[in-house]
């Protein structure tokens, strides 16, 4: 005797590979299927629709197939409500909790589909009916804008509170992997193959510049995630211009980036090398530790800008032009600066908040911070990864954003050419 | 009119390049010199001695030359006491404070040379006369073992307290860069050239195994700094054996390393792949988040070992055999585990404590944690860096340990061959 | 008015992605289609079959769609004979000649499908009816074994002779891309994802060893393509054992590989370093040029083995055990050895002959020679690529063999572990 | 009883590390020494002079020490004539022949020092007295310009002819390693440390542009060694401009470079990708093989330019502006083009001839051709190596040119910025 379930596929199911994955999953897991309806989009802009009956030997096998299918965007044609189980303790999720992807996700609750807020991967999903919230709102006089209830949103494991209603199992969950329509004409319809340094660099940078302009024109926000190599390679002044002129709205970096940016301002060096003359002044290797010491003395970067100790650079432009920044600490930091958030969980929360506001993210020569930001991004945010190490670009692109573009190039020539495209050719 | 100062060089000043650096510095900075005594060691075991008169146009130039010389181990033949200035505030060092190298260093105080304790680079040096300490000792009934006073020790910038007597300027400081005697016969007299993957791998691993045996025979402690690639590449069981058999005394790693080690125990996978059959079981990509959830539920790794949830692996052997470990958090962590220290400064302090106890450090496939540990090591600790990425090995060796050996190889074959050399060939 | 053509897809058309590519191509090129028959293999071992009507606006567009489809293995259901045009001159192909893929290919000639011999990519296909050949056979008394006619075979551009009947256009050509059946159970059903060093090394080597054993059991031939890094990294003795014991039947390498192998035998060094003690004997950097000089003096490698000048190593075992080798020259060679084929076209021909005999190819730490061999391989030959540089492995895997397995590891530990698996565990 | 010999060191013996190497060699090889005269240059522009007595236990040991010393530029203060032995056969050198470095070298013959012509490494040195040559000159009516005799010049092993008088042993040979005077002020007084991508890119390119301008101003010749990545990365048009405007006088490349340059001209693609729009036109992957076929049809690149088949690009500008080029074949070539020299020895000879004329060499994204060219360069030629892979840059710099500058950057942004510096800012 076999058991069966009807499922549906919608969208660019051929182009996106969804149909192929779906057939493969069923066969891999020992099931079989019959296609009951198959309406293929004949033109590149048309979406397709397929309805299939999935068959398996027993309920367990069927569950397992349906679980995998729905991770790939195949959803039951006759859905039920999601299963909610209260968290037994702070930071403790119920057994079998649903761990998220970074794709847009919907939870079925009381017969309605609710979109999950703040999508990011490897989180739990909490559903709130509103009563508890309204109660707490009254008591603490919280005056944030009223929300629609019920709502569903992601929570990282360490933010789970006892009693949170956590989605478990697979039932009542719909995932929509973004599609990569071929020949989309959009700014990001290029370069989605493998990662290689043998690509036309100037043409690619022009396309990235266009995507930034488009994002700004749509009122979107651009976030730059920056590693210290950006300073060492001499791209500091051009990035500072992009911050000043409003092409970069937010900055995410580490302690080292800010230190070397400030070292360059105060001492004219980066890692002890004069980035103009390429000389190594004596004492240069101590400049970064002196720079930290000066900022600690002032009390922080903003104070050091106000007092005139810092007079130029990326951090300076952030302060002067009100571009918010997050400096996340790490165990290899010297100092650190007073502005650096040393607690990893606290820093993740600050990064998360920024990431959720960003419409386009430039990941510039930093693996650690890019991964941290990438972890918090929904798969629908535009991402550009630039690094001279192909392995870094590959690792970042592999994290599954359908909107990610990678470029293996020299950050020290990339940023100046990008700035030229954005600022000098207007 | 010129000013002059007499300086001395001692040790393997030719082999170590000290003499060449010294002549170069004087000439670069516009000074001149006359060699007053030059006793060259004619055989490889003999040390040399040179006494020179350094001349400059004015006192400033002379200061600057003497500063650089003493960074390279050249010391005035007629020394004065070090200059001590009290720190004006917590975390604030006096202007012109002396920022350390990682070489053995001595401070002249009341006419005596005191060796600086806990040498590591980029720190301030604090000198304590004993009175303050003895006072505080009495009041808080502190019963730690009595120390000799006066003492000098390093403090990182964020640990400076108001009133600490901080060494400033260059006077009264002696630095001893370790020498690399050629053909030393010691375990580490090999492979100190550039970094390359085209080196005889098995012979090199045999030499590293011998150095570990030698360290253990001398009663020394071996510390392993481990990245998650070690687990993914299948080397987990062999590293666990090395921990169990006492060839690894301490562990320094990140949250991810422990998570994947535990994932392997509970689910048989690492990053979702079965490391034996190389299959990717369904749900595999969720295993790491489930593993974290299980440990949080238990309250920590030790509790999870005690309850039988974790039954094998590197973390298991650390718990069972009382090998202390530090798990340092980072912004890319999932979870994290309850054992992970999320604050970067707190984690650095825990790493620092471990590092100061280690006599030999194996840096295995992690750049972040290796740099963090390396920052806290004196230049006299034996260090082995293993990574498949030559850039990582180069970056670690560049940090200036004279005892560092680098190997560009596959951690997944390195650890098994090392374990075979240490355990099976006894 | 539209034009249309009926095409067929057969095989694992879903798993292999063929169906998806096919739909994509039609839509990209502005055509449309209707699926007339679709018989999906419900189980993983079943093949599928689909028949579709492709429609386009005009004949040009239809040609272009059908061209692309058939490159991906989609063939007209009503085929015509291939178009043959004589080559106008030596080395000159007719306009519009068909340039091959490396997949199995069939040419329709006189209503019959003939399989193209010696498949390799980027060649022309020549069809021979037999008369010309028989004529030339008689005249030159050529006594090679008689062949069946008509036959079709590949020719590289520089081998084309005036009058060769060259296949042009797309008509009458059938291509069969190999399929990657999921979960095939075969030795090569592993590791076909991206390239990474974070893979379980020992388990992977065990699988490769099993594939070699299987190839030998089936009476197949194993070819090793070797770079000099293999010698420098200390793997020479273990490769020599594999040659002696018959696990390597043929060798393809460059002048440098043989020189360093022989240097090791005569002087005990490789690139001047003693691979056991890791010392650099004085004069070591001249050893390779001396080794070349000695072999030139003897007249060649075989003569040097016969005279006792060479007494061990990979080249020695090749001579002693009659394993044929090709040493291909390059512009960076010293010497070269008398055995090295300095003409690139002649060397390609020698490599081509070897490659066509191989059933399994081990590409060990050489990009240049691996690409040269890979260019001559049909897509059905098993290929293993091993290199410590991920970019090299990626580049080799990208050349499109469906049977290729890549491993990012240290050749100096890979070969010893492989030899242990094959020789010591019997 | 000991034996001894007096040796001399001259030049920047401290700065260049010569003195340190020299002391180290003597001690390593078990000898001892006394410094008899030591005149240290007190200022950076002054040269130093030292005279030492080297002592050893026996003549063998002394020989061995003196051999090593003279490889490092230390020469006997009482020199004898070089030992000349006739080559016993074509391509066969006498036992104990002297194998060259790439440093300027002098041979003592009849009491006079003769500078060795055409210095390159790993060659034999042949001394000619003039009689033989004059005889052959007369017989064949050779009208090349008369030379001074005696002369000494390098010969690669395969060019040795029976009877050539080959220098053997170490006697009567003087080597002058170039010195790296600190703070030289010259165009190449920068960036001689390790290789890293974290360097100020634009400033470095400006310095390279200045060095090219200086070379041209001095009447020197600039040679570009180019890999196909240059075309793929979109730098073709800017390199073509540099050829046209006379900043590149000679070109050395492989078949692939020329093929992709011509593919771009005829089909608008490189490796099948449109380098402007980044699209992949259908059939694109066949364009390179079609391009080869077109050039073969014409008979060569010059013919294809003359007939109007090729109308732009690097090869086009070479033909139009009479910039000589060498295309060296390799076993991975398709085609090859009729212009490609397929024999490695013949190609080396063509490269050698070019290399000896070059005053500055730009090595642009090719390891194979750069090594081949580098092998033929004396250590006094200015060399710039640019590649995105740090391992390639390191390997090229390691070959020992004192004038080499390495840069890890994207060739696709490097060439446009260089062209801008040279052409647009005049």
From TrEMBL, chains A, B, C, D:
- Give the enzyme class: lyase
* UniProt catalytic activity: L-ornithine = L-proline + NH4(+)
Q: Which GO terms describe its molecular function?
A: nucleotide binding; ornithine cyclodeaminase activity
Q: Which cofactor does it need?
A: NAD(+)
Q: Does the keyword Signal apply?
A: no
InterPro entries for this protein:
ArgZ/ArgE-like (IPR005239), ArgZ/ArgE-like_C_1st (IPR048964), ArgZ/ArgE-like_C_2nd (IPR048963), LOR/SDH_bifunc_enz_cons_dom (IPR007545), LOR/SDH_bifunc_enz_cons_dom_sf (IPR043009)
Give every LOR/SDH bifunctional enzyme conserved domain span.
4-103
Q: Name one Pfam family in it.
A: ArgZ-like_C_1st
Q: Where is the Arginine dihydrolase ArgZ/ArgE-like C-terminal second subdomain domain?
A: 207-418
Q: Which residues form the Arginine dihydrolase ArgZ/ArgE-like C-terminal first subdomain domain?
A: 104-205
Sorted UniProt keywords: Lyase, NAD, Nucleotide-binding
Q: What does this protein do?
A: Catalyzes the conversion of ornithine to proline, with the release of ammonia.
The text of the family note is: Belongs to the AgrE/ArgZ ornithine cyclodeaminase family.
Can you say what this protein is called?
A: Ornithine cyclodeaminase
Protein species of origin: Haloarcula amylolytica JCM 13557
